[in-house]
Design a protein that fits this description.
325 residues; alpha/beta; Rossmann fold; 2 domains; globular
């Protein structure tokens, strides 16, 4: 069995490769070439802490495995990661566990790569201003991924911890130089009104901005909530948007951003226009008009993790990277 640490994985795959992998895996999902059971979520008693079990199988590449991921929001105040994860890969020939990979980095990588694919297919071609709610690990990955699919001229970050938002803005300002202006927003409204592309990467259980603030032509990616009773966007955002999802099946079971307005009659299932694989394959249209507001909801699927982990593992074997036990 091969064990791969985060540092190993960082050196074995790029964000650009992850984006290409997500295009392939969502096309396979739409073509029914994968098995993705509904995740099992164990919520700790009287807390927001959860441990999730996410198995998946890719038929074309014979990638099979399981991700175990914990989400402990209170960790942020302790200065330790909110999300931690491990991915276990099985040998498709004999069923033995062939590898264990650090999963936190892969989770951030594949989630950011997925929203980059959504932005590539749904945001206006001239969208250059990216606004990110949240300033954690996922927010950083989202910015890296969006720089791969858009020539950004401005990055705006908002977090309830203003110091974290400012630190992340300074990090990317040094990275971008004069090609891009990076700053921390003073309020959610400031971020929304300045942005062409918005990503919500938070652990909030209630909407983080008002949909009435959205400019015409804005594209929104919502990735933080994955439980039926939790949402990051409000009814106004849903009502004003053309709606897209990573998976019809999983979004309708797990996405509170959609389930809650469905229950109150704000929207119906027919308002979900396509899943990401249909856009990648060109089977359905995304944006119709420049002024359309588009909304992509991602709950995250185990097959994304397995697709990335399989690519990483193949390279690790070729280069003899990792600890073999």
């Amino acid at each position: 069995m091969r064990i791969l640490a985060r540092s190993d994985i960082e050196n074995l795959i790029t964000m650009r490769e992850a984006i290409a992998a997500m295009e392939e895996v969502f096309a396979a999902l739409t073509n029914q070439e994968v098995q993705v059971p509904e995740r099992t979520v164990l919520t700790m008693d009287q807390s927001e802490n959860s441990v999730l079990f996410m198995p998946a199988y890719l038929k074309r590449t014979a990638g099979v495995g399981l991700k175990v991921v914990s989400v402990f929001p209170a960790n942020a105040a302790k200065g330790i990661p909110v999300i931690s994860a491990q991915i276990m890969m099985c040998d498709p020939a004999n069923g033995e566990v062939s590898a264990i990979l650090e999963g936190g980095y892969i989770t951030a990588l594949r989630t950011a790569a997925t929203t980059a694919v959504a932005t590539k297919n749904l945001a206006r071609g001239d969208a250059r201003n990216l606004g990110v709610f949240g300033a954690g690990v996922q927010a950083k990955s989202q910015i890296v991924a969006h720089r791969e699919v858009r020539n950004l001229s401005r990055i705006i970050i908002y977090d309830i911890d203003g110091n974290k938002a400012e630190a992340l803005a300074q990090h990317f300002q040094l990275l971008c130089g004069q090609s891009c202006e990076c700053s921390a927003a003073k309020s959610p409204e400031e971020l929304v009104t300045l942005s062409d592309i918005i990503v919500t990467a938070t652990t909030s259980q209630t909407p983080v901005f008002k949909g009435d603030w959205l400019k015409k032509g804005t594209h929104v990616n919502s990735i933080g909530s994955y439980k039926p009773h939790v949402r990051e966007v409000d009814d106004a955002t849903i009502q004003r948007s053309r709606i897209f999802v990573d998976s019809y099946k999983h979004a309708l079971k797990e996405a509170g951003d959609l389930i809650m307005p469905l229950k109150t009659g704000v929207m119906s299932e027919r308002h979900i226009l396509a899943e990401l694989g249909e856009l990648v394959l060109g089977r359905k249209e995304g944006r119709e008009l420049p002024d359309d507001i588009t909304f992509f909801k991602s709950v995250g699927l185990g097959v994304q993790d397995i697709a990335v982990a399989q690519r990483v593992l193949e390279k690790a074997i070729q280069r003899n990277v990792g600890l073999v036990v």
